[in-house]
Amino acid sequence: MERMNASDFPPELLDDLDLYVHGNMDRRTFIDRCGQYVVGGLTAAALFEALAPNYAWAEQVAKDDKRITAEYATVPSPDGNGSIKGYLVRPVKASASAKVPAVLVVHENRGLNPYIEDVARRLGTENFMAFAPDGLTSVGGYPGSDEEGGALFAKVDRAKMTEDFVAAANWLRARSESTGKLGVIGFCFGGGIANTLAVRMGADLAAAVPFYGSAPAAADVPKIKAAVLVHHGELDKRLVEGWPAYEAALKAANVRYEGYVYPGANHGFHNDTTPRYDEAAAKLAWERTVAWFNKYLRTS
């Protein structure tokens, strides 16, 4: 099917998609809602398919790109679910004698899908070591589709999953190829985890970049020592409305931060596998992200 853009769909349907993706609307109800908004002669089923991820669109860096090496690795997580598996990407020149900064990449509420693996590879080509853990490890791992991944996600103990990400972050930071400078980037659920890690890890985390993630409690913000770069889409009303309070807490705690709200962009605007992708906003946010990591992970 030809790629469609957010502007091809009624805004109300994209709002319903957000409810569905976040588990607040079941599949049958969402498809019924699609039937109320059929566009371009599509049936409800075809409209549902048009809104689903297409991972062929996400591969900006090939799996065999000569600039990087990639493999799967398993990290012990004694305080979480026992262990967590993830996708480790290193620049070809990274070694114990040629150390590079490290970035943890945290997925949405679907698990370690091909889009997130590609984000890790993109960071690898920018001369960062990246590790993208799969929060679904304890239930068998990402199952190959986002819909099935979302169902599995709901079965994982959220507190234990958080501990899995903490374990992965500490493991990555301590690797022999790492300079010891660690950043985290996360999307949607992963954006919330990026904020959580900023609170949990204190000075052990140098930079955090949450994309449309839930903010931490205001009382916890003073624990943040990382430099925080926040990205939101203008049409993501719930999270955008919460940004001023988070910004005020960051200011009050003297946390180094920047925050951007991208005009006309939806929740999930960086994910280039769905119609909510906003190319201009995604590219600008990525440029800012790489610059942020270069600034805060490559300085003493």
Would you mind describing this structure in some detail?
Helix 1 (11-21) packs antiparallel against helix 2 (27-36). The termini are far apart. The protein has helices at residues 11-21, 27-36, 44-51, 114-125, 146-153, 158-174, 189-201, 237-252, 279-297, and strands at 68-77, 82-91, 100-106, 129-133, 178-187, 207-211, 227-233, 257-262. Helix 8 links the parallel strand 7 and strand 8. With 300 residues, it is of the alpha/beta class. Strands 1-2-4-3-5-6-7-8 form an eight-stranded mixed beta sheet, sandwiched between helices. It has two domains: 6-52, no CATH class; 56-297, Alpha/Beta hydrolase fold, catalytic domain (Rossmann fold), CATH 3.40.50. The chain contains nine helices and eight strands.
State the gist of this model:
By secondary structure, the chain is of the alpha/beta class. The protein has helices at residues 11-21, 27-36, 44-51, 114-125, 146-153, 158-174, 189-201, 237-252, 279-297, and strands at 68-77, 82-91, 100-106, 129-133, 178-187, 207-211, 227-233, 257-262.
